[in-house]
Each structure stands twice: as structure tokens, then as C-alpha cells.
């Protein structure tokens, strides 16, 4: 593996206005904590925002919006542990924005998980200095993070003062749209020092009472020898620092090492965070030692999770960046933490760190690479099953109604009003009606089970969630006598541009095709799960959940008689009445506004509404083709008594793609997937657009507020499952590769039902190597033939 070329992202210029994007893209995390790539010397001002987020570290706060009180739950921005800077005797503290930058290189080594800045700068008085800053957020021991600064005076000698701080005076102010909302979440509790070389800060989130302790040990070295320094302790409310002087000589480097230990009151196996931080720092090795263990942990992750494209271009690099961010959001350190997969990573404050349906796009990767982690993430939902049942009950339904946006305790966290930056007005937000989030959870449970055959999980937790979700869909469905079919009303589909009918004063739409068909899928899968349960477990669950044969019969009945809306042209209608909406003149809007991805905001700012038009933010009907194979769709439609003509698929795709503004990064991904079999060139084109959506921030500013994890993971999945035709069908792992012509080939490993399988694809060949496993044989299907593979077998298939 060449670890130098396809593993490093390098920027060779310092452009202050690009910093917000780079801070998000170079965020370092370990599945427990994440910190944006803000420069150590910077603070939250101008183009800098040094945010630190704890996985699942939420807090609620009330704000007044347009005369009403709203309560939001936010992912808290915890104290800034990065804070490190220097100054000359009598000078001011170093800030990159205040000096002349002579050389700049900012790089992220994805293989080792190390960020590095190499800078040469000149100060007003002519002093030139080189600075090499390295940083990690430890993947091996998630409680450690470290910074190393190497300062070299190029043309001066003299005394400098170092300041190494923990700054708890930070607020949540990373998203301009939220700035009118309450942003203070932290309450300082305690400041202190453990010994001569370490300081600590203890804070508490003011509502959730979640506590965090950060402790920092700062040392100085010359030629590998530790320098004796005289540290001065400085504190003010919520802020603590160590300051010390160093004598510098021209051309002689000094190194500063800041090792930080971070603990929270939610941690496992602790007595109390301050004591744990103290003990950890006491034992902590040097920056290099910790960095080595950290890089080793990363190399193990890469061994499992890399997709080695062997073509050394940007696709390889960005794909690795996407895998890197998935693993920084959730890794082995996340297992058992009671957290879910946030839509924007733990990388910024957009969407407040909430958990949406986006995990649907992340699970396929985790199921095949880190199934033990996928299981833990499903448990996040299981622990919130009581909250989902309560929500259903309060809304007058049965079963489990999972929230569209989920945070700490499973309450619905969606906003009721949302600021439209185009108009400056707070618009009502009815996207919470996306009940289809429960479908995503059910689908993830099913996919996890298929990839792992983890029957213990299914029996203990998975089946219960599936049954409660099925029960919810059953309770939402009602029989329309005139039509002789079941219907589902008052929901919103994945396309968030449509939340109600034009001229209606009630939110919600009727018979969203994606929701109706997938509700049928859930009901049918729940019935299959019942068959999988042992008699004892079935009895237990049926008794506990009070499920009787009548209810099972109703599920079966709905799953055979659900209504699906079609338009006159035979294309599945996004929802009932969609065909009556007006067509929008896309060209007119493009001409007027240029970027029309967020047509909803544009139309609303004009006093109009996207609800009136056939325009979509993202794939809705097409999600069906994304999640289900055409065989599965045909089966479901046959079950419903509809004829499904496969030849309508390309027309359906074209119909909706022409009407999409791609206002969500999830949109292109789905289009790229559904094109993959019919038009590989188009698919690859759209895949490439999807690939750069965060890297080049094609939405114009949203990435800076947090990466789009669903889109990132989705591009990885395009390679892992879509272009390889990897699917589990009938208990067999099928491969049916059709690589885009631009892809010469690639290698990857997958974990499948306890086996590690190494796969190598080229345009004309697939190689399957059965590396190790726990059961004697597995069945692998290649195109249309099934083969048995056992330990040590390696087979090549020509395509
Ligand atoms: C999309 C949703 C998505 C959410 C969080 C929205 O813009 O429309 O589908 O779940 O972002 O990523």
C-alpha cells in the first residue's frame, strides 16, 4: 500500500475564508470525541471555529423565536482543548491572520490519522519563524488527544512565552442560522491542577447535567531532552492555562507537547472524571508514543475497511476520506456508548448532531465491515423503543413511532420553525411528519441480520423493534371501502419540498408511494421474523406485546391490499395528487438565481411554495429502486395485486430526475445507484458529483457546519455494493459486478456471517478469497451460479 500518495489530502495555501470548510473536512475524531481542525492558536471568530463534540453529548435550551418559546436539543460544543499559542517578550499572542505567511501546507494523513500544518511566517518586525504543528485524536485510547508544536526561529533569538489553555468559555455558535437561539450550554464547575505540569477544567451542560473534564499536560523539549520550565497557573471563569517562558536560539527548534485527557460523566468503567483524567495523564506517554499507538489502531481499521482502487486519482483519495469520517464518527470506541449515527458526523453543529434516517446510508458499510458496531448502533434505537411507543400512543397510534430527529432520550427533536436564510423569516417546519424513519430502522435491522445471521440479536431485540414498527404501520393504515384498499394519510415522504397540499392548511400528504410500499415491506418482513422466532421467544414476545392472531392476520391483509398511486402515464406517483401539481420552469429559476438546489427557500422567499410544483429536493419514489431489487419490487407489487412492468423503471428515473433540484446531498447518490444498471456512464458521472459534494462543498457552505455522513457513506457503498452487485439473496452472498469503465479494479475485505472474505474486482474478473471463518462453508453466487467456499479457498471467476 502506498501510504504517501493516495492517503494524504494537502492544501498548500492559507485562505482564511476556506478555513471553515477545511476545519470540517480535517476534523479528527475517534468515535468518542471529535474536534474540528481549527488552528490551535485561533478562537471562535472570523473564519475559525474550534468545536469539540462528544458522541451523544447533548443539552437542551429554550429560546424565544417570533414571540414563542421553543426548546431545542443541541450537540454541545465542549471546551476548546486545542488552545495553544506563543508570544515574544512584550509582543502579542501569535495568530496566523496577523502575520505574513511565507509558506503554508496543511495536510491530513488518512492512514495515520494525523493532521499537520507546516508554516513559515514573518512578523511585522521582520522576525521569521517556522512552525510544524501535528495533532491526533487518539483512536487507540479514545480519552487522549495530543498536539505537538515545533517552533524554529529562522532569523532571531530571544525569549518567548507559551500559553496552553483549556477554554470552557465557548458557546454553540457554529451555525449562523441558529445564532438567534440560546447558545450557552456550559456551566463551569471547577478548575485546578494535578501537579506542576497538568491543569484541568470541569464543566457541566446546564440542562442535561452531563459533565466533562479535560486535563492538559504541557511539556517543552529541545533535541529530545525535556526542558525545565517554570509554569504559571492562570485562571478565570471557565478558563485555565499554563504559561511558561522559553529561551529560543536562531535555527534551534523547540518542541511543545500538549497531551489532553478527556472524560465525561457518561463514560464506562470510571469512578469520577477528574480522577480518571488525572490517572490517565499520569500514565500517558509522549506525543510520539501515543501517536504510534493511534496510527496502529488506524492501520487495523484500514486493513478491515479500505477499498483499494489502485488508480491513484482523486476518487481513491476522497473515498478514503469518506471511510475516514465514517470511522471517526463511529468506531470500536463507540460500541456500547448508547449513541446513534448523526447526519452530520460529530463534526459541527448543523442539525444539532441529531440522528435522522441517514443511518440507512451508513449501515451497509458497517454491516459488512464492523458488524459489532452496527449492532451497538441498532441498540441506540432499541433503548429508545419505549419513547417511540409513547410517541405513537400520544399521537393516537399503536406500536413504535420513532422520531424524525432523535437525540438523547428518543423524544422528537425536529424543529417546529426553521429560519429561511433567503428571507430571514421563520417558516413552519413540518418535516417531522417523515414517519418513514421507522422504515429505515426496520430495514437496517433486516440488513444487519442478513449480513451477520446474529440470531441472538434478532431474538432479544431486533424482532421486538420490527414488530412494534410493523404495528405502527398497521395502526396508521386504514381501509378505504370505496377503493377496496388500505391507505396511509398525513405523512411526508423523503422529498422534504412537499409537506402539504397546495392551499391546504393541514400539514401532511396522502399515500406517499415510498412510504406505502415500504410499509408493506415492513409488515411482510415482520411476518417473516415471526417465523424465525423460537416458540418460547414468540410466546414471550406475543404475550409481552399483546399480539394476537387477529393482529397478525391484519398485517398480512394490509400487506396484500395497500394502495399505491400511479399517474396516467403508468409511472408511480410520488403521492396521491402529485400529478395535479404544476410543472416548474427550472430554466427560469436557474437563470434568475444560478444555484437552485434549495428551491424551497427560493420559492418561499418569493412568497410562493414548493408544495405547488412537481419539484423535489431528493429521491422519493426512486428510494424504492435504491433499497429493493427489481425482483423484490415485483414480488411486493404482485403481492399487492398490481402489475409491475420493469420497463417503466428508466422512464420513472428520468421523470423524477428532471424534476429534482438535488437540495440534499443524499439525492445524487440515489440517482447514481438507480442508474447503475441501465446507464453506467450516467451513473458514474453522478457518482463523481456525489463524491465531491463535501470535498468541494457544492452546496456552498453547508459542509463547514458538519460533513454529510450519509452521502459520504453512500459513495463508499456505491463501490462496495452497487458496482459489485453485492447482495444477500436467499441466504447466498451474490456478486454481479459491473464496474464503470473508469474503474480499473479494486480490492476490499468484507465480513459476512463470521467470515472474512477478500474480494478483488477488475473489469473482467472477480477473485474471492476465503480468508478465515468459523463455519466450514459458505455459498457465494457469481452472476447466476452458486459455489461453495471454505477456509483457505480462493476462486477466480471470469466475467
Ligand atoms: C434531507 C434529509 C436528511 C437530513 C439530514 C435533509 O436535508 O432532506 O433526507 O435526513 O437532511 O441529513
From TrEMBL:
Name of the protein in its database record: Trehalose 6-phosphate phosphorylase
Domain Glycoside hydrolase family 65 C-terminal: 726-789
Gene3D superfamilies registered for this protein in UniProt: 1.50.10.10, Glycoside hydrolase, family 65, N-terminal domain, Maltose phosphorylase, domain 3
Keywords, ordered alphabetically: Glycosyltransferase, Transferase
InterPro entries assigned: 6-hairpin_glycosidase_sf, 6hp_glycosidase-like_sf, Gal_mutarotase_sf_dom, GH65_N, Glyco_hydro_65_C, Glyco_hydro_65_M, Glyco_hydro_65_N, Malt_Pase/Glycosyl_Hdrlase
Top-rank taxon: Bacteria
Catalytic residues (positions): 496 (proton donor)
Annotated ranges, domain Glycoside hydrolase family 65 central catalytic: 320-716
GO molecular function: carbohydrate binding; glycosyltransferase activity; hydrolase activity, hydrolyzing O-glycosyl compounds
GO terms under biological process: carbohydrate metabolic process
Family membership: Belongs to the glycosyl hydrolase 65 family.
Species for this entry: Marinilabilia rubra
List of residues binding substrate: 357-358, 617-618
Pfam families xrefs: Glyco_hydro_65C, Glyco_hydro_65m, Glyco_hydro_65N
PANTHER family assigned: GLYCOSYL HYDROLASE-RELATED (PTHR11051), PROTEIN-GLUCOSYLGALACTOSYLHYDROXYLYSINE GLUCOSIDASE (PTHR11051:SF8)
Domain Glycoside hydrolase family 65 N-terminal: from-to ranges: 11-265
Amino acid at each position: 500500500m502506498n501510504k504517501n500518495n493516495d492517503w494524504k489530502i494537502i492544501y498548500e495555501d492559507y485562505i482564511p475564508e476556506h478555513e471553515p470548510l477545511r476545519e470540517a473536512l480535517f476534523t479528527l475524531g475517534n468515535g468518542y470525541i471529535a474536534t474540528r481542525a481549527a488552528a490551535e492558536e485561533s478562537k471562535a471568530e472570523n473564519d475559525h471555529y474550534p468545536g469539540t463534540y462528544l458522541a451523544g453529548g447533548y443539552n437542551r435550551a429554550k429560546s424565544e423565536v417570533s414571540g414563542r418559546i421553543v426548546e431545542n436539543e443541541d450537540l454541545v460544543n465542549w471546551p476548546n482543548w486545542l488552545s495553544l499559542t506563543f508570544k515574544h517578550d512584550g509582543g502579542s499572542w501569535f495568530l496566523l491572520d496577523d502575520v505574513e505567511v511565507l509558506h503554508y501546507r496543511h495536510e491530513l494523513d488518512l492512514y495515520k490519522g494525523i493532521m499537520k500544518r507546516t508554516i513559515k511566517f514573518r512578523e511585522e518586525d521582520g522576525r521569521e519563524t517556522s512552525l510544524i504543528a501535528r495533532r491526533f485524536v487518539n483512536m487507540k485510547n479514545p480519552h487522549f488527544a495530543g498536539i505537538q508544536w515545533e517552533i524554529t526561529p529562522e532569523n532571531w533569538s530571544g525569549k518567548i512565552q507559551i500559553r496552553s489553555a483549556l477554554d470552557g468559555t465557548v458557546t454553540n455558535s457554529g451555525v449562523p442560522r441558529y445564532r438567534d437561539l440560546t447558545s450557552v450550554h456550559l456551566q463551569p464547575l471547577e478548575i485546578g491542577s494535578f501537579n506542576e505540569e497538568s491543569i484541568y477544567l470541569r464543566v457541566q451542560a446546564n440542562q442535561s447535567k452531563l459533565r466533562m473534564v479535560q486535563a492538559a499536560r504541557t511539556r517543552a523539549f529541545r533535541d529530545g531532552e525535556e526542558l525545565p520550565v517554570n509554569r504559571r497557573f492562570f485562571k478565570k471563569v471557565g478558563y485555565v492555562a499554563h504559561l511558561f517562558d522559553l529561551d529560543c536560539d536562531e535555527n534551534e527548534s523547540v518542541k511543545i507537547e500538549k497531551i489532553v485527557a478527556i472524560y465525561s460523566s457518561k463514560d464506562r468503567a470510571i469512578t469520577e472524571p477528574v480522577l480518571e483524567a488525572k490517572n490517565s495523564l499520569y500514565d500517558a506517554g509522549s506525543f510520539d508514543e501515543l501517536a504510534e499507538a493511534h496510527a496502529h489502531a488506524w492501520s487495523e481499521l484500514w486493513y478491515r475497511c479500505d477499498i483499494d482502487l489502485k488508480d491513484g486519482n482523486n476518487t481513491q483519495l476522497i473515498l478514503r476520506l469518506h471511510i475516514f469520517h465514517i470511522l471517526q464518527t463511529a468506531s470500536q470506541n463507540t460500541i456500547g456508548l448508547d449513541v446513534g449515527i448523526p447526519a452530520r458526523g460529530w463534526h459541527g453543529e448543523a442539525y444539532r448532531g441529531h440522528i435522522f434516517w441517514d443511518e440507512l446510508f451508513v449501515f451497509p458499510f458497517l454491516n459488512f465491515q464492523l458488524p459489532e458496531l452496527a449492532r451497538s448502533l441498532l441498540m441506540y434505537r432499541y433503548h429508545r423503543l419505549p419513547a417511540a411507543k409513547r410517541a405513537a400512543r400520544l399521537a393516537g397510534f399503536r406500536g413504535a413511532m420513532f422520531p424524525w430527529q432523535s437525540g438523547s432520550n428518543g423524544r422528537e427533536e425536529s424543529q417546529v420553525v426553521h429560519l429561511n436564510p433567503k428571507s430571514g423569516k421563520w417558516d413552519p417546519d413540518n418535516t417531522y411528519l417523515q414517519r418513514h424513519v421507522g422504515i429505515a430502522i426496520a430495514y437496517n435491522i433486516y440488513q444487519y441480520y442478513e449480513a451477520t445471521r446474529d440470531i441472538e440479536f434478532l431474538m432479544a431485540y431486533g424482532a421486538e423493534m420490527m414488530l412494534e414498527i410493523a404495528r405502527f404501520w398497521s395502526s396508521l393504515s386504514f381501509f378505504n371501502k370505496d377503493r377496496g384498499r388500505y391507505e396511509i394519510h398525513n405523512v411526508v415522504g423523503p422529498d422534504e419540498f412537499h409537506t402539504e397540499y397546495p392551499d391546504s392548511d393541514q400539514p401532511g400528504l396522502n399515500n406517499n408511494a415510498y412510504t406505502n410500499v415500504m410499509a408493506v415491506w415492513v409488515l411482510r418482513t415482520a411476518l417473516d421474523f415471526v417465523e424465525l422466532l423460537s416458540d418460547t421467544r414468540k410466546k414471550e414476545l406475543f404475550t409481552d406485546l399483546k399480539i394476537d392472531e387477529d393482529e397478525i392476520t391484519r398485517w398480512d391483509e394490509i400487506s396484500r391490499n395497500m394502495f399505491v398511486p400511479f399517474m396516467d402515464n403508468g409511472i408511480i406517483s410520488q403521492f396521491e395528487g402529485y400529478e395535479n401539481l404544476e410543472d416548474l420552469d427550472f430554466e427560469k429559476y436557474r437563470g434568475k438565481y444560478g444555484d437552485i438546489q434549495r428551491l424551497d427557500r427560493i420559492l418561499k422567499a418569493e412568497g410562493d411554495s414548493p408544495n405547488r410544483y412537481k419539484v423535489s429536493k431528493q429521491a422519493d419514489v426512486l428510494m424504492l429502486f435504491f433499497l429493493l431489487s427489481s425482483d423484490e419490487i415485483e414480488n411486493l407489487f404482485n403481492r399487492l395485486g398490481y402489475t409491475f412492468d420493469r420497463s417503466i423503471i428508466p422512464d420513472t428515473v428520468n421523470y423524477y430526475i428532471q424534476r429534482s433540484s438535488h437540495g440534499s446531498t443524499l439525492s445524487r447518490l440515489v440517482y447514481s445507484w438507480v442508474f447503475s444498471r441501465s446507464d453506467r456512464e450516467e451513473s458514474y458521472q453522478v457518482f463523481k458529483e456525489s463524491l465531491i459534494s463535501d470535498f468541494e462543498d457544492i452546496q456552498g457552505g453547508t459542509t463547514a457546519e458538519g460533513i454529510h455522513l450519509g452521502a459520504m457513506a453512500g459513495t463508499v457503498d456505491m463501490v462496495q455494493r452497487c458496482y459489485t452487485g453485492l447482495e444477500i439473496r436467499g441466504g447466498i452472498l451474490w456478486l454481479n459486478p459491473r464496474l464503470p469503465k473508469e474503474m480499473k479494479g479494486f480490492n476490499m475485505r468484507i465480513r459476512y456471517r463470521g467470515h472474512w472474505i477478500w474480494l478483488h474486482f477488475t473489469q473482467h474478473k472477480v477473485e474471492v478469497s476465503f480468508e478465515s471463518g468459523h463455519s466450514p462453508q459458505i455459498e457465494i453466487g457469481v452472476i447466476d451460479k452458486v459455489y461453495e467456499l471454505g477456509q483457505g479457498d480462493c476462486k477466480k471467476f471470469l466475467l
